[in-house]
């Protein structure tokens, strides 16, 4: 019975760089390149933002060791975080922040429990890759942290970005 379980093919998730069909006529068709997307974790209480590539597979330092549920009560008293998917694209003037989508996350380290909607995180990553700007659920403080991070990371990318992004991250 154990050998039967081991003989089943494993379906792994592979990040494909560049052109997934390069050199092949059919292999890789329908694959997505995740080369231009990065996850940024915003710690609202600390006022910090940083790129955490581990979040691509839900394995960031922030998420490590935490059991996530879809019930907010499980992580009551936890720290608020935002996982922001940032997609960079290129146009004639140069690269720019093309897609920015934010997902809520709460982490209670003492209880080792957290709140997040994994389906929402995956769907928002997809929306970011499709050049959508979805930041309306973020509070003003979080928007300012994200805006400051994006500008400090590369002011030229920020300047070339759309008015929709600039308006979306405007705070009062």
Protein architecture, described:
- The chain has 172 residues and is α/β, with parallel strands linked by helices.
- The chain has one domain.
- Helix content is 25%, strand content 27%.
- Strands 1, 2, 3, 4, 5, 6 and 7 form a seven-stranded mixed beta sheet that branches.
- It is globular, with a radius of gyration of 18 Å.
- 27% of the residues are buried.
Characterize the overall form.
globular
Strand content: 25-35%
Question: CA-to-CA gap between the ends?
Answer: 63 Å
The low-confidence runs, each spanning 5 or more residues with pLDDT under 50, are 8-16
Which structural category do the helix and sheet elements fall into?
Answer: alpha/beta
What's the domain count? Answer: 1
What's the Cα radius of gyration?
18 Å
Number of helices, counting only DSSP H or I runs of 4 residues or more: 5
- Name the helicity range: 25-40%
Q: What is the count of β-strands?
A: 7
* Major sheet size, sense and barrel closure: 7 strands, mixed
Please provide the ordered H/E string of secondary-structure elements.
Answer: HEEEEEEHEHHH
Mean pLDDT: 85
Indicate the topology.
Blueprint: H1 2-6, E1 37-43, E2 48-51, E3 67-69, E4 79-91, E5 94-108, E6 113-115, H2 118-129, E7 133-134, H3 140-153, H4 155-160, H5 163-168
Parallel strand pairs: 3-6, 5-7
Antiparallel strand pairs: 1-2, 1-4, 4-5, 5-6
């Amino acid at each position: 019975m154990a050998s039967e379980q081991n003989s089943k093919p494993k379906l792994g998730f592979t990040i494909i760089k560049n052109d997934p069909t390069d050199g092949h006529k059919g292999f890789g068709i329908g694959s997505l390149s995740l080369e231009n997307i990065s996850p940024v974790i915003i710690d609202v209480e600390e006022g910090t933002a940083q790129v955490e590539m581990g979040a691509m597979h839900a394995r960031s330092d922030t998420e490590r060791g935490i059991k996530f549920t879809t019930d907010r009560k499980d992580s009551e008293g936890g720290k608020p975080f935002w996982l922001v998917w940032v997609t960079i694209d290129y146009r004639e003037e140069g690269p720019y922040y093309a897609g920015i989508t934010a997902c809520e996350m709460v982490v209670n380290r003492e209880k080792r429990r957290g709140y997040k909607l994994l389906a929402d995180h995956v769907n928002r990553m997809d929306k970011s890759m499709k050049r959508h700007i979805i930041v309306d659920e973020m509070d003003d403080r979080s928007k300012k942290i994200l805006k400051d991070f994006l500008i400090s990371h590369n002011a030229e990318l920020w300047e070339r970005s759309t008015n929709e992004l600039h308006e979306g991250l405007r705070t009062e």
